[in-house]
């Protein structure tokens, strides 16, 4: 289950970001995942629930947003949404494309609480 090692890395990175920003707590971890990331959202959430308490993120919530697969046509440079994994440019018909989004797992943002804050503040990573 590579989701567990991925979440372990997300937790390490989140704690480092929180520490660098002087936060006392991480309230939410916002991740985005794409269809080509090779990650199953349900397994990711399960790994987070299992690993977060032991990492110091006892009360943190995981928020996962699934991103669309997007490509850029090499022939005409049009950026388009890939549907059903068909990499065909809707403008020129070329199948020569670069993936622009949807092939990764990313920390989009963290909601942090500073020692003096009673209300969480948001910090983009």
Describe the structure concisely for a colleague.
This protein has 125 residues and is α+β, with helices and mostly antiparallel strands. The chain has 2 helices and 7 strands. Helix 1 packs across helix 2.
Essential attributes:
125 residues; alpha+beta; hypothetical protein PF0899 fold; four-stranded mixed sheet
Question: What can you tell me about this protein's structure?
Answer:
The chain is an alpha+beta fold. The protein has a domain at 2-67 and 102-115: hypothetical protein PF0899 fold. Helix content is 27%, strand content 32%. It is built from 2 helices and 7 strands. It has helices spanning 2-20, 41-55; strands spanning 25-33, 61-66, 70-73, 79-81, 97-101, 105-113, 121-124. The strands form 2 sheets. A 4-stranded mixed sheet has the order 2-1-6-7. A 3-stranded antiparallel sheet has the order 4-3-5, with no helix packed on it. Strand 6 and strand 7 (121-124) form a beta hairpin. The longest helix is centred in the first third of the chain and has 19 residues, at 2-20. It is elongated. The chain starts with a helix and ends with a strand. The mean pLDDT is 90.
* Total number of beta strands: 7
CATH architecture of the domain at 2-67 and 102-115: 2-Layer Sandwich
Overall spatial form: elongated
Rg over CA atoms: 18 Å
Structural class: alpha+beta
> What is the count of DSSP helices, taking H or I runs of 4+ residues?
2
* Main beta sheet strand tally, sense and closure: 4 strands, mixed
Could you report the average pLDDT, rounded to the nearest whole number? 90
CATH class of the domain at 2-67 and 102-115: Alpha Beta
Query: pLDDT below 50 for ≥5 consecutive residues: which ranges?
Result: none
Strand order of the largest sheet: 2-1-6-7
Q: How far apart, in Å, are the first and last alpha carbons?
A: 26 Å
How large a portion of the residues is in β-strands, by DSSP E?
Answer: 25-35%
- The helicity comes to 25-40%
Query: What fold name stands as the CATH topology of the domain at 2-67 and 102-115?
Result: hypothetical protein PF0899 fold
């Amino acid at each position: 289950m590579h989701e567990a090692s991925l979440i372990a890395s997300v937790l390490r990175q989140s704690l480092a970001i929180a520490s660098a920003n002087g936060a006392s707590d991480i309230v939410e971890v916002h991740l985005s995942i794409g269809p080509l990331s090779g990650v199953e959202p349900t397994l990711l959430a399960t790994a987070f629930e299992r690993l977060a308490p032991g990492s110091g993120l006892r009360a943190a919530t995981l928020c996962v947003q699934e991103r669309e697969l997007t490509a850029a046509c090499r022939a005409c440079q049009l950026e388009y949404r890939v549907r059903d994994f068909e990499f065909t440019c809707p403008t020129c018909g070329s199948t020569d494309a670069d993936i622009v989004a949807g092939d990764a797992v990313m920390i989009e943002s963290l909601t942090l609480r500073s020692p003096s804050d009673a209300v969480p503040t948001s910090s983009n990573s």
